Amino acid sequence: MDFSLSEEQLMLKDSVTKFMAANYSPEQRGEIIKKADGAGHWASFAELGWLTVPFSEAAGGFGGNIVDTCVLMEEFGKVLVVEPYWSSIVLAGQLLARSSNAELSQALLPAIMAGESQASFAWLEAQGEFNLSHVSSTAQQDGDDFILNGEKQLVLNAAADFILLPARSSGSVNSEQGISLFKIDARHPALVREEVALMDGQRAVNIRFNDLRVPASDMLTAEGEAYSLIADVVEEALIALCAEAVGAMEYLYKATAEYANTRKQFGTAIGKFQALQHRMVDMFMATELCRSLLIRAQCSVLDDSSDRQKDIAALKSMVGKYGRKVAEEAVQLHGGMGVSNEMPIGHYLKRLMMIDSYFGNAATQRRNFCELSYA
Amino acid sequence: MYAKFSDAELAFQSEVRSFMRDNYTPELDARINHPDTFKEASIEWQKCLDRQGWAAHGWPVEHGGQAWTATQKYIYSTELAAAGAPDVVPMGIKMVAPVLYSYASDEQKQRFLPPTKASDIWWCQGYSEPGAGSDLAALQTKAVRDGDDYLVTGTKIWTTYAQYADWIFCLVRTSNEGKPQQGISFLLIDMKSPGVTVSPIISIDDEHHLNEVSFDNVRVPVSNRIGEENQGWTYAKALLTYERTALSGVGYCKRTLATIREMAAQSHNQAPSLLSSPDFQARLADVEMDVMALEFLELRVLSAIDSGSAPGMESSLLKLKGTEMQQAVQSLQWDVAASFGGVLPAEHGAEALWQSSGNMARRSYMFGRASTIYGGSNEVQRNIIAKFALGL
User: Fold this and answer.
1) Do B392 and A280 touch (CB under 8 A)?
2) In this predicted structure, what is the pLDDT of residue B310?
3) CB contact under 8 A, A292 and B297
4) Packed helices A308-333 and A227-262: angle between N→C axes, nearest 10 degrees
5) Which of A2, A261, A272 is opposite residue B303, by nearest beta carbon?
6) Which fold has domain B122-230?
7) Domain spanning B7-88: which superfamily?
8) Is the pLDDT of residue B231 over 60?
């Protein structure tokens, strides 16, 4: 048992902290969001080597594991990084890296790691709730090509150059069998795009595709067999997302305590009031509990534990529940400042609400946990 | 970062597991859980652990402890709890002993440590007073110097198992100078001394664990004082930290949750089981997920202690969340038992199984209310965390 970070991981953490201190004040973040070109500090992220972290050395990456990815994501969470690290590197990047189509991944990954190209993963359909196997988009074979039809919602990273898109070539709408994963050009003429600005500063796109033709060589796995690839990558991506949430929660309890120590009412710092102190202690406690589950899930992946899925469901569920709670408390304890859009606090609430919604919110993940535990 | 056990740790785990299986018998369990046989059976169990070298495993090696890693301590306590076996009654081995081996004279160590380890002394703790609970430093029991003795007068309260105790370790006031914390000394008092009176307090589980202990001019040799006069608060504070580290009870929570799952899965008269109800599942899952977090919070603390950091504020976190989870588990346990008629006394016809689990659930739930009060109430823990972790 050892929960400490390696020297390399500490250096990685340090490099992010330093960069963010210089480049990621709430005002600077606001500027990045306003530009809305998806670029942000992406070139610097590439220069600093962060884009290669989760990729194997054989693929030209840093060779990091889930802990390395979480080190980055947690630091990103502290300043609410809006650059599409999670969607482009952790989701789409890992789908490619673990794809059985070596030719395709060798063709695309170098540019991803160099920051020259960005990707996205279109997992969500309108009626799909949070079910990964819910794929109603269709893929019909036509010679060496497939013809895709359907819609996807909330495809993160509107600036992505290409999209990884699950479509069904056989099986019923919720079947794990029959799902194929295609790489499509994000500006393909057969794609109808509707860009959406999300409340957390991210830009997403809803897409419709009518008779979009893709060569079979742009499939990431053998036909109909993409589900397990998707499920594996999503598991680790959830842990990384929760690391971001824990970073945001840490920011919130610290910022709240700091504010309470400076804000004076009734002639004294409000942080001296026991009723408020105890609420801040509960914010701190909730954060440490989520961090404990985060470490548990990381170990579960590294140790290849049979409880992995349960550990991840518990983590995502609790991060959803406690993340929202901590952010709501932060807003309350900041009083009027907490509800002002000019102050950072509310933006953490928005981000934590969005994090909760991805791949199953607190209630859905609790249901998953129950199915895994009591069935 | 990893949590996996090494081969050596797995071997240790199976050693502990088979020891528990062979030695913690259902017969012993029944006697430990019956008030009439609790004391002798507890001593018997602790002596059995001591023969194995495990009763005082947390002590320094030179006093008979084990140089276990955090992982081993975790394995030990998990296996102990999984077997349903109680840990040692804490007042001696876990609470007074760290003060003794840290601050006592060599002579005192020789006199008290071996019999404490062997469970030949039953200790109780004399801290709280009618006027000094969370505000412990307000204690008034006074010790006045008279030659080579102190004369001790005052009242201690909520004293667990004083009715069984041979000795009591006390905080007494030896000076009224300076801050309240400054005039306190740490005294060991023989319970057989003339002037010591123990009166029972029946708790809401209808059992007798607690007592009031009064001292009427009790003569105590100065040689029974630990460390310097008026420095007792410092020693006690160190002890409280150890006490809290022992309080998370995650092993107990896990074992009780397993029992709850088992009971809730049974169905009666063809009715669907409680465990098949989505409402019950959601409640159970909320508690289980919190306990999973608590378990790793404890592992993080243990692992930090291993790498040389002293337990401090983290032990307050563990005490706080641990006792909250113990109560959450007890609350569920009661609901499960109650759903099967376990609230009914035997003569009113509850099935035997549910009647005994109902009794158990009621006792645990009722006495469990004390867990968020003792060892520094959870409100006091929150004050401590606010100050030391959040700088408020």
Assistant:
1) yes
2) 62
3) yes
4) 30
5) A2
6) Butyryl-CoA Dehydrogenase, subunit A; domain 2 (2.40.110)
7) Acyl-CoA dehydrogenase/oxidase, N-terminal domain (1.10.540.10)
8) yes
Q: Are the folds of B7-88 and B122-230 the same?
A: no
Q: Is B346 on the interface with A (CB under 8 A)?
A: no
B390: nearest CB among A4, A284, A298: A284
Contact indicator for A138, A210 with CB cutoff of 8 Å: no
Enumerate the domain spans of chain B: 7-88, 122-230, 247-388
**Architecture in CATH of B247-388:** Up-down Bundle (1.20)
pLDDT digits (tens, 9 = 90+) for A334-366: 999 999 999 999 999 999 999 999 999 999 999
Which pTM does this prediction carry?
0.94
Residues of chain B in contact with residue A296, where contact means CB-CB under 8 angstroms, are 3, 292-293, 295-296
For position A195, what pLDDT does the model report?
A: 96
Cα nearest neighbour of A369 on chain B = B285
> Shortest Cα distance from A349 to chain B (angstroms)?
21
Q: How far is B301 from chain A (nearest CA, A)?
A: 10
Domains in chain A: ranges and CATH: 7-83 (1.10.540.10), 120-224 (2.40.110.10), 228-374 (1.20.140.10)
- Min Cα distance A246 → chain B (Å) is 13
Q: What is the pLDDT of residues A168-216, one digit of tens each?
A: 999 999 999 999 999 999 999 999 999 999 999 999 999 999 999 999 9
Task: Chain A: give the shortest CA distance to residue B392, in Å.
Answer: 6
Residue in B with minimal Cα distance to A314: B289
